[in-house]
Please model this.
Amino acid sequence: VRHSHTLDMVMTDFAPDVVIHFAGLKAVGDSMSDPLGYYDVNVGGTLALLHAMDRAGVRRIIFSSSATVYGEPDYLPYDEAHPTAPTSVYGRTKLAAESLLTDWCFANPEASAVILRYFNPVGAHPSARIGEDPSDTPNNLMPYIAQVAVGKRETLQIFGDDYDTPDGTGMRDYIHVVDLARAHVAALDYAVANTGARPFNVGTGDAYSVRQMVDAFAKASGRDIPCRVMPRRDGDIAAMQANAARANEELGWTATHTLTDIAQSTWD
Ligand code: UDP
Model:
């Protein structure tokens, strides 16, 4: 995505009506130790892409952003008007890319940028042919639980059970990847029909705790998931939850998959 010449060839070969920009680095921990690499790919890559789009006269883009742009919640659920104060380098690169898209649209009144702020994508395609199975140590909860269930790892470490939540473990708004994919299809229609830059929360509006995720997965797999409670993970917040009303109303999109679907498709 930082290779201008290749991007020019792609624009020429495909002459896209809309670009969906997924390319980016996404490990919060890595971003703290490699800020230049993260700015280079996530911000530099977006800049190189917009330049290539400009050269080819392509005026519409859908961007994978993240709910992490909000930072510590002033209130929950987050709506799109919630202040943005990301607590990691990763979050700041996403916010910088959002600003770039907003400024680009401001300078090009016919341009359109749909900014999708993903909450916690999980689950797998129902075919069981596309899913997540990281070869190195998983950073995220769901792939870690899955590796414990199949016996690849012994215990799940629960990062803190003393949060101000009903069972003390962290809560997140987990969104099934197929719902997330459907949000992009809805965003394509929106980008064709509208101009300007606009952020949308892509979440379910519900939140589940670490313990609820473990229970759902144990049920789907019929296996025990041994857990050990550890200290809180640096930089983690107690709970995150989307207000998805804007995406529901303006994109005509709603998440339809349940927690059971998430656990079952991951296990499949
Ligand atoms: N979590 C955990 N053990 C793990 C990985 C994650 O207890 O091995 C917790 C984490 O503290 C958070 C939730 O699971 O409350 C989701 O974490 P994840 O890294 O999947 O997503 P994040 O919201 O941090 O991007």
User: Anything to note?
Assistant: The chain has a mean pLDDT of 96. The chain has nine helices and ten strands. The two ends are 33 Å apart (CA to CA).
